[in-house]
Design brief:
- The chain is mainly alpha-helical and about 350 residues long.
- The chain folds into two domains: about 5-195 and about 315-345, 3-Layer(aba) Sandwich (Rossmann fold), CATH 3.40.50.620; about 220-315, Tyrosyl-Transfer RNA Synthetase, CATH 1.10.240.10.
- The chain contains 14 helices and seven strands.
- The chain has a three-stranded parallel beta sheet. The chain has a two-stranded parallel ribbon with strand order 4-7. Strands 5-6 form a two-stranded antiparallel ribbon.
- Helix 7 packs across helix 8 and helix 11 packs across helix 12 (about 275-285).
- It binds adenosine-5'-tetraphosphate.
- Adenosine-5'-tetraphosphate binds next to helix 1.
- Adenosine-5'-tetraphosphate (AQP) binds next to helix 1.
- One of its GO terms (molecular function) is tryptophan-tRNA ligase activity.
Length: about 350
């Protein structure tokens, strides 16, 4: 069966990038898949957040999931730290993953900066924990933005090495299925998870710099649209978004070398579930002074109902806490089965 897992870090205000690149896709997958959506609070510890901010941000991501339309009865929503199996499996994976693999992760290089010696071990080992999040549920598909592609490849590498290293043990215990791993056929326990990266919103860029990802941790609030922004904030940020002075081109080839223009076109395409081609069919030739108010109107129409529902849910977080507790119980039951198998496979007595 196809099983979807994904997560968002509670590390600040969610952006339109997180919504279009991830949460909107989470919602779309609900009808066809069994879905598990996590608020990855253990991952957020890598930036040493203030404890109260972390708790608040954790509830806020859960509120965004619910407000965006995730059905918490049918699917599972919970916070990562509740299910101790994530941390346990991450340790096993730390012993599978190689230093070289993790050293090549561009997110680590970016976030650690120049002072590598001073980066936390947690930041370095982040992708092992992410692999554990996914594989604790033996998820087959993970909807993410383009920036997470490399981490997903690492998840596959970890699954593949685990399956190879323990192939005969997995067979002996009758816990695996035959899988093709490179040129060999082995008895695999973990699936090779597929990323789901697609649509117009794989990478929403900063409103101030079309070459940088829109990110919750960007120091400039004008660089992003937050899911908590007011309608006026959204209109202002789009009005002030950096652009060039040319009108919009009539086809996508004309967007080459125009990163900011391409970004605004991509945002409208993602918001309206169309393509940049279709956006340019309708808006090609228009000046930004005409295009931006339209984009703002559409963004407000989609974001505002989510913002107000998030605000309503956050006013009394008891419902959110109940959702997280209930989701945590259901997730625990599933992850516990995986860990029982893994303990047997690797030889840990319980
Ligand atoms: N700009 C983006 N465009 C498309 N998708 C994006 N995502 C993030 N930014 C964009 C996707 O959102 C999901 C959750 O991200 P995360 O919070 O786990 O971590 P991140 O990718 O590091 O996101 P941020 O906003 O950039 O956070 P900070 O600033 O804390 O590092 C992922 O699926 C991601 O691809």
């Amino acid at each position: 069966p196809e099983r979807v897992f994904s997560g968002v870090q509670p590390t600040g205000n969610l952006t339109l990038g997180n919504y279009l690149g991830a949460i909107r896709k989470f919602v779309a997958l609900q009808d066809t898949h069994d879905c598990i959506y996590c608020v990855v609070d253990l991952h957020a510890l890598t930036i040493a957040p203030d404890p109260k901010d972390l708790m608040n941000a954790t509830r806020s991501v859960a509120a965004a999931y619910i407000a965006a339309g995730i059905d918490v009865k049918k699917h599972i929503v919970f916070n990562q730290s509740r299910v101790h199996e994530h941390a346990e499996l991450a340790w096993v994976f730390n012993c599978i993953a190689r230093m070289g693999w993790l050293s090549r992760m561009t997110q680590f290089k970016e976030k650690a900066g120049k002072d590598r010696e001073n980066a936390s071990v947690g930041l370095f080992a982040y992708p092992s924990l992410m692999a554990a999040d996914i594989l604790a549920y033996r998820a087959t598909h993970v909807p993410v933005g383009d920036d997470q592609k490399q981490h997903l490849e690492l998840t596959r590498d970890i699954a593949q090495k685990f399956n190879n290293d323990y192939s005969s043990r997995i067979k002996e215990l009758g816990l695996g299925v035959e899988m093709e791993m490179g040129r060999e056929v082995v008895n695999g326990y973990f699936p090779l998870t597929e990323p789901l990266i697609g649509g117009a919103a794989t990478r929403i860029m900063s409103l101030r710099d079309g070459t940088k990802k829109m990110s919750k941790s960007d120091p400039s609030d004008m660089s992003r649209i937050n899911l908590t922004d007011t309608e006026d904030d959204i209109a202002k940020k789009i009005r002030k978004a950096k652009t060039d002075t040319e009108p919009l081109p009539s086809d996508v080839d004309g967007l080459a070398g125009r990163a900011e223009a391409a970004n605004l076109v991509g945002i409208l395409a993602a918001l309206t579930d169309t393509t940049p081609e279709q956006v340019l069919n309708n808006h090609g030739g228009k000046a930004f002074s005409e295009f931006k108010p339209h984009l703002a109107e559409v963004a407000i129409e989609i974001v505002s109902p989510i913002t107000s529902e998030m605000r309503r849910l956050m006013a009394d977080p008891s419902y959110i806490d109940q959702v997280l507790a209930n989701g945590g119980e259901r997730a625990s039951a599933m992850a516990a089965e995986t860990l029982a198998d893994v303990r047997q496979i690797v030889g840990l007595i319980k």
